[in-house]
Automatic annotation (TrEMBL):
<keyword id="KW-0119">Carbohydrate metabolism</keyword>
<dbReference type="InterPro" id="IPR000811">
    <property type="entry name" value="Glyco_trans_35"/>
</dbReference>
<keyword id="KW-0663">Pyridoxal phosphate</keyword>
<keyword id="KW-0808">Transferase</keyword>
<comment type="function">
    <text>Phosphorylase is an important allosteric enzyme in carbohydrate metabolism. Enzymes from different sources differ in their regulatory mechanisms and in their natural substrates. However, all known phosphorylases share catalytic and structural properties.</text>
</comment>
<dbReference type="Pfam" id="PF00343">
    <property type="entry name" value="Phosphorylase"/>
</dbReference>
<dbReference type="GO" id="GO:0004645">
    <property type="term" value="F:1,4-alpha-oligoglucan phosphorylase activity"/>
</dbReference>
<dbReference type="InterPro" id="IPR011833">
    <property type="entry name" value="Glycg_phsphrylas"/>
</dbReference>
<keyword id="KW-0328">Glycosyltransferase</keyword>
<protein>
    <recommendedName>
        <fullName>Alpha-1,4 glucan phosphorylase</fullName>
        <ecNumber>2.4.1.1</ecNumber>
    </recommendedName>
</protein>
<comment type="similarity">
    <text>Belongs to the glycogen phosphorylase family.</text>
</comment>
<comment type="function">
    <text>Allosteric enzyme that catalyzes the rate-limiting step in glycogen catabolism, the phosphorolytic cleavage of glycogen to produce glucose-1-phosphate, and plays a central role in maintaining cellular and organismal glucose homeostasis.</text>
</comment>
<dbReference type="InterPro" id="IPR035090">
    <property type="entry name" value="Pyridoxal_P_attach_site"/>
</dbReference>
Length: 793
């Protein structure tokens, strides 16, 4: 392959050539299974599920492909004989950051699991030219740089020009009756965009299934090339901007036209290609719902609903009722957050000018909804739930009204949707609501990221768990086996030393692998409460300054977090953490008892390094706000002990490991809602009445923290004077007490390692294999691996 690609042999080649040669080999190695999977699906006319997602946060793929193909060790060994280190060449691959955080990474875990569980399920999204920005710290401030992940090419994708489709925007549309009596649209002055698919094989683990991730790229249609040169360049730039850059918003919604264009672009392209593929099988459009399931991942692809309606009405000439029936049966929707700013809504003017025909259809869906509900529900409820209201189109309402299934992503989150956030809809459509707790793939997050732990587990209980993760429960038999607990401790120590090397190399900070590695890795958002973590660090710092002999076990606090570029408050928190790190890391009197490591540019590849080295998993969001969380699952699977509020999937983690093996603190969701109701939370009182807390908070404004005056003042005010929206001060004392408990437990190594072991043993249910099997069985009604049925129980 090296000779074919680069006309060179191994001795002449460097890492980059070796990486691309190997990547190409792997791709051709799986090509046969890729086409035979497709042929089989066609031949058996199997129902297909399509996961529509704005984000797929894949991470590097070389090793995961090798693992899933069952050739990781062979390739590693073969390369070694040639004097090549696999670990070195995998670093060449760009880490495609086509997602913001948990939502995008979940989509990536799901497609890996679908292929592994032999579910005919594929991803559909956008091939963003630039992934999520690259984060740099300059003087402690976050600076955003472009992430040009395609610069050196992408070995995994195949451009499929022959499968391109056209997506239309703008223009005028009117309906005219045809000779057959159909009302069909006529268009004038539309802007046509060519959507070109790039397909990536998604390889199942230990089987012959290879599914497809189809990402669309926006290009200028060929006929437009005939225009004059400058108009051509301008139009090309405008069109290509659609698939240029991923929006760096986590749960902040930005009302930007380009975002709406992106959403319609991949929705329309995806659905057109699904229908084209379906019709190739010679089946009647009337049976579409028997062969196709489309999943709407968050509201971003909610235009799937009017777009499918448009194609069924305008292209297939079905009547409204019939088309609507098919659409509801095809569509299902997942809600991923209750944060109100993430509930997308578009101004009517914007959507009706950009997508005139789609807007007509949305209006008609809304009109019929109101008409149908009038007889059944109160006017108030109908007004609160209709799609077009207050001059806006509400995407969540569209997704709910047009789908047969609506799910939340953890038990608590689904309960809150039913009882609070979507309560009106729950009363209208009770049977549509269901829960599907998130999951993670054990292949990337244990088998690849933590090879020493994988080996230890295999030694103890065999390797059935690799396919059936709940088998990890067998580890419980070793809970009192000192030797195993010591081996577990050794592995953690090795992983920590490994990570410490990285920290020294990349950040020039020396950390002691015998310290507690306390990890909070997730997007920077006020509700996730990185500030609570920081206030506790400041408390420890003050304690040590007052009495250098204060008896605490040394700690390394590890943060990894990007803030949305427009989210000023989150960026201030980053700066503040970095300033506190400057202060503490350079204070010799602290005697290395505290260190703060804020990893720059946190993403999938860094998570793979940090998670195996973690002792403590910080999951400290304000109860009710974190829909699920998934780093909580990855960290427990790698033997970290969770320090958590009863939020999201933390509740289910506690149920699995028992209260003795997780440290829980803080308000419950019920208490939070109670505060909202009676308005009785006054953060200022906590400042006034709690001297310890007061002293800590004063460090933000009294000059203790270097070079963060503005940030310290703003943050102080938000907590003390402007209401403390996420109850940081309320939970402070309990958090400090919980941290003390951690300190005490950690000093008893056997107890600690037993907790770690029980966490690993209890993590089995959080495999995304189970999650997708439940989607396949309960929502999509598609087939799956015959022996996987028992995993559902
Ligand atoms: C999120 C939730 O915040 C997170 O709790 C959840 O685990 C994830 C996947 O379901 O979805 N919702 C959201 O908008 N983002 C998330 O990560 C960005």
């Amino acid at each position: 392959m090296l000779t074919e690609l680069y006309s060179m042999d191994v001795a002449q080649s460097e890492d980059t050539e070796q990486y691309f040669a190997l990547g190409n080999l792997v791709r051709s190695y799986c090509a046969k299974n890729w086409s035979s999977t497709n042929r089989l699906y066609m031949k058996k006319e199997k129902k297909q599920a399509y996961y529509f997602s704005m984000e797929f946060l894949l991470g590097r793929m070389l090793k995961s492909n090798l693992l899933n193909l069952g050739i990781l060790e062979t390739v590693r060994g073969g390369l070694k004989e040639l004097g090549i280190d696999l670990e070195k060449i995998v670093q060449i691959e760009a880490d495609p950051g086509l997602g913001n955080g948990g939502l995008g990474r979940l989509a990536a875990c799901f497609i890996d699991s679908m292929a592994t569980c032999e579910i005919p399920g594929h991803g559909n999204g956008i091939r963003f030219k630039y992934g999520l920005f690259k984060q740099k710290f300059v003087n402690g401030y976050q600076v955003e740089l472009p992430e040009n992940w395609l610069q050196n090419g992408n070995v995994w994708e195949t451009r499929r020009m022959n499968m391109a489709v056209t997506v239309s925007f703008y223009g005028k549309v009117w309906l005219e009756e045809t000779v057959n009596g159909y009302m069909l649209p006529h268009y004038e002055n539309t802007e046509r965009v060519l959507a070109v698919p790039y397909d990536t094989p998604i390889i199942g683990y230990g089987n012959n299934t290879v599914n497809t991730l189809r990402l669309w790229s926006a290009e200028l249609p060929a006929q437009d090339e005939a225009m004059d040169y400058w108009s051509y360049i301008q139009r090309r730039n405008r069109i290509e901007s659609i698939s240029e850059v991923l929006y760096p918003d986590d749960s902040n919604y930005e009302g930007r036209l380009l975002r709406l264009k992106q959403e319609y672009f991949f929705v329309s392209a995806g659905i057109q290609s699904i229908i084209r593929h379906y019709k190739k099988m010679g089946l009647s459009i009337n049976h579409l719902a028997e062969k196709v399931a489309i999943h709407i991942n968050d509201t971003h692809p909610a235009l799937c609903i009017p777009e499918l309606m448009r194609l069924l009405l305008d292209e297939e000439h079905l009547d409204w009722e019939h088309a609507w029936n098919i659409t509801i049966n095809v569509m299902s929707y997942t809600n991923h957050t209750i944060m109100s700013e993430a509930l997308e809504k578009w101004p009517i003017d914007m959507i009706s000018s950009l997508l005139p025909r789609v807007y007509q259809i949305i209006s008609e869906i809304d009109r019929r909804y109101v008409e149908k509900m009038a007889a059944l529900h109160s006017t108030g409820k109908i007004e609160r739930t209709r799609i077009i209201e207050g001059g806006h189109v509400k995407m969540a309402h569209l997704a709910i009204i047009g789908s047969h299934s609506i799910n939340g992503v953890a038990k608590l989150h689904t309960a809150i949707l039913k009882e609070k956030v979507l309560h009106d809809f729950f009363l209208i459509y009770p049977s549509r609501f269901n829960n599907k707790t998130n999951g993670i793939t054990q292949r990337r997050w244990l088998m690849l990221a933590n090879e020493p732990l994988r080996e230890l587990i295999n030694e103890k209980i065999g390797n059935d768990w690799e396919k059936t993760l709940t088998e990890l429960k067998m580890l419980k038999a070793f809970r009192n086996d000192e030797e195993t607990l010591k081996e577990l401790a050794e592995i953690k120590r090795i992983n920590k030393a490994h990570f410490a090397e990285y920290v020294l190399d990349a950040l020039k900070i020396e950390v002691d692998p015998d310290a507690i590695f306390d990890v909070q890795i997730k997007r920077l958002h006020a509700y996730k409460r990185q500030l609570l973590n920081l206030l506790h660090i400041l408390k420890l710092y003050l304690d040590l300054k007052e009495d250098p002999k204060t008896d605490i076990h040394p700690r390394v606090f590890i943060f990894g977090a990007k803030a949305a570029p427009s989210y000023t408050y989150a960026k201030e928190i980053i700066k503040l953490i970095n300033s506190v790190a400057e202060l503490i890391n350079h204070d010799a009197s602290i005697n290395n008892k505290l260190k703060i490591v804020f990893i720059e540019n946190y993403g999938v590849s860094l998570a793979e390094k940090i998670i195996p080295a973690a002792d403590v998993s910080e999951q400290i969001s304000l109860a009710s706000k974190e829909a699920s969380g998934t780093s909580n699952m990855k960290l427990m699977l790698n033997g970290a002990v969770t320090l958590a509020t009863l939020d999201g999937a933390n509740v289910e983690i506690r149920d699995r490991v028992g209260s003795e093996n997780i440290i829980i603190f803080g308000l419950t969701d019920k208490e939070v809602y109670q505060y909202y109701q009676d308005g009785s939370y006054h953060s200022h009182d906590y400042y006034e009445n709690n001297p310890v807390l007061q002293r800590v908070l004063n460090t933000l404004i009294d000059g203790t923290i270097p070079d963060a005056e503005t940030e310290g003042r703003d943050i102080f005010n938000s907590l003390v004077n402007y209401g403390d929206e996420y109850f940081v001060l309320r939970d402070f004392d309990e958090y400090v007490a919980a941290q003390k408990k951690i300190d005490k437990l950690y000093r008893d190594p056997l107890t600690w390692q037993r907790m770690a072991l029980i966490n690993i043993a209890g993590a089995g249910v959080f495999s995304s294999d189970y999650t997708v099997l439940q989607y396949a069985n309960d929502i999509w009604d598609v087939a799956y691996r015959p022996d996987a049925g028992e995993l559902l129980n």
